From TrEMBL:
Compartment(s): Cell outer membrane
InterPro entries in UniProt: SusD-like_N, SusD_RagB_dom, TPR-like_helical_dom_sf
Keywords, sorted A to Z: Cell outer membrane, Membrane, Signal
Phylogenetic placement of the source organism: Bacteria, Pseudomonadati, Bacteroidota, Flavobacteriia, Flavobacteriales
Name this protein carries in UniProt: Putative outer membrane starch-binding protein
Residue ranges of domain RagB/SusD in the record: 271-484
Membrane keyword on record: yes
Length: 512
């Protein structure tokens, strides 16, 4: 079985590359040199997987700023990073500066990925044009379908941030830009339709069941992205139908240990429908493919493994979230989601209502790492924390080699439950049943007569710090009062980020 990260290593990160205005038929980057399209042998079907791996690598190689900006405006997360990147902290307060480098960088990150993915798909089509064997034809259809799923994911993230965006469906970038920006509703419908195009050609399996590329996207990844797009459209019947299909497949289940789910033990588990995969290949040095987890980590800690690097302190669970979890009697999900410092604990107990905390609230993690006080934040995200004892010997970077989960089965269950509370009919049980599966894992009692508010509370507890789920739920439901917390005031005008000034200077965007 091939692991995507291993393939990327073997290919020395061979990508189907194209700059924003170039087609992949112009050039492919191989190792440190350039391989012209004329040098490709499209009759060699064994190489057809290479542009596909290029698409995965483009999506996996996320900038550290991407998940931070996507999630920071929710009431589950505060910016942290105090004393550095003030415009990031301002964004958390709904004060937007379209000249902030991070906005433009993320715009370029996602659109760069989209163009690479589209170009990879067209390169695979070229291989298909020369294919003779049915097996090769089927592979080409599958690989192109996988590219569509990855393209859907990237368009989805961009449209949630900016609303109206360009849809890039071909490598003729000029023609695509000439079509102008599409509304958020049009983008979400495009994504839903694109998933419908892809699904018939994708493996009917969990990602961890794939024998060709372990952890790669499958039919169920596409269904999940389709459900997310329709949730944004508030097409709740479609959400119920799609999530119900995933549930009724009986292929997925919740990972038994919520804490370990976000550590290396939970990688490519039966719960994960889509995750960004990384690896240091179990070696002390040399090639590695790792996400930069530094922004999520503490800038002062005492790790069990001496020499393990500290983080930057840029992503802080909110005090509102912590108190919400304490009020619910949460233990497992709170310990998993939040790493405490002494200063943070003192901040909690300064409120008379929380003067006495449960004994599990500690600045020592279950794995023995000690989070000391540091100036940039009072808490750190536990879901992005890798215990120092889990680092490969010789690797010291914070979170080195840890995967980044994007979509998991718990979210599918809760989307299904919400759709039913919003009036949709379901084929995979009741909303109560779906919510209670999620609650049972962490030892919480069952609920009956579940409402939309109950589901939102469960999503808050279950999915905090994950890809802005909380923020986008609140703006979809117009729950502005939830986002107006700790001195913030949120209005409808704050929902979307402004287009980056650097893009307004280049492209015919409407900044209204």
């Amino acid at each position: 079985m091939k692991n995507i990260s291993q393939i990327i290593k073997q290919l020395t990160l061979m990508l189907a590359i194209c700059a924003v205005v170039f087609s992949c038929t112009d050039k492919l980057e191989e190792n440190d040199g350039q391989l012209a399209a004329d040098d490709l042998d499209f009759t060699n079907s064994d190489d057809m997987i290479l542009p596909l791996i290029g698409s995965y690598s483009a999506v996996y190689s996320r900038g550290w700023e991407d998940p931070l900006l996507i999630g920071v405006r929710g009431d589950d997360v505060n910016a942290g990073g105090l004393g550095d990147q003030p415009q990031f902290a301002d964004t958390d307060l709904f004060i937007y500066d379209n000249g902030f480098w991070m906005y433009n960088q993320i715009w370029e990150n996602f659109y760069g990925d989209i163009v690479k993915i589209v170009s990879s798909r067209e390169t695979i089509q070229s291989y298909k044009d020369f294919a003779i064997e049915d097996e090769d034809l089927d592979k080409a259809d599958q690989y192109m379908a996988e590219c569509k799923v990855l393209s859907g994911f990237t368009h989805f993230q961009m449209s949630r941030l900016w609303g109206d965006i360009f849809i890039i469906g071909t490598s003729d970038i000029t023609a695509e830009l000439d079509k102008g920006v599409k509304t958020k509703a049009e983008v979400m419908q495009y994504i839903s339709d694109l998933m419908d195009e892809a699904i018939p050609f994708l493996p009917d399996a969990r990602p961890n069941e794939r024998q060709d590329v372990s952890g790669g996207v499958t039919k169920y990844t596409a269904l999940a992205i389709k459900a997310l797009a329709n949730l944004e459209l508030e097409n709740y019947q479609a959400v119920a139908d799609v999530t119900g299909e995933i549930i009724n497949s009986s292929k997925f289940n919740l990972y038994p240990d919520f804490y370990d789910l976000f550590k290396k033990e939970g990688e490519r588990s039966n719960e994960n429908l889509f995750e960004l995969q990384f690896s240091d290949y179990g070696t002390e040095s040399g090639a590695e493919n790792s996400h930069e987890y530094g922004p999520f980590g503490p800038s002062n800690w005492t790790p069990v493994v001496a020499g393990a690097s500290e983080g930057w302190g840029f992503y802080e669970p909110s005090l509102k979230f912590i108190k919400f979890m304490l009020d619910r009697g949460e233990t497992t999900r709170l310990i998993t989601s939040v790493n405490f410092t002494p200063r943070g604990i003192a901040e909690i107990t300064s409120d008379p209502a929380y003067a006495t905390l449960p004994s599990f609230v500690s600045n020592v993690t279950p794995d023995g790492d000690i989070f000391n006080d540091y100036s940039r934040a009072k808490f750190a995200s536990g879901k992005h924390y890798l215990p120092s004892i889990d680092l490969t010997p010789g690797r010291t970077r914070y979170g080195s080699g840890k995967n980044l989960i994007v979509i998991r089965y718990a979210e599918i269950l809760l989307m299904y439950a919400e759709a039913l509370t919003q009036g949709a009919s379901g084929s995979a049980g009741s909303a109560d049943q779906a919510v209670n599966v999620v609650r049972a894992r962490v030892g919480l009692p069952a609920l009956s007569g579940v409402t939309t508010d109950d589901v939102m509370d469960e999503k808050f507890a279950e999915l905090a710090m994950e890809w802005g789920v909380r923020y986008f739920d609140m703006i979809r439901l117009n729950k502005y009062e939830e986002l107006s917390y700790e001195g913030r005031t949120f209005t409808a005008e704050d929902e979307l980020l402004p287009y980056p000034q650097a893009q307004l200077d280049l492209l015919p965007l409407d900044n209204n």
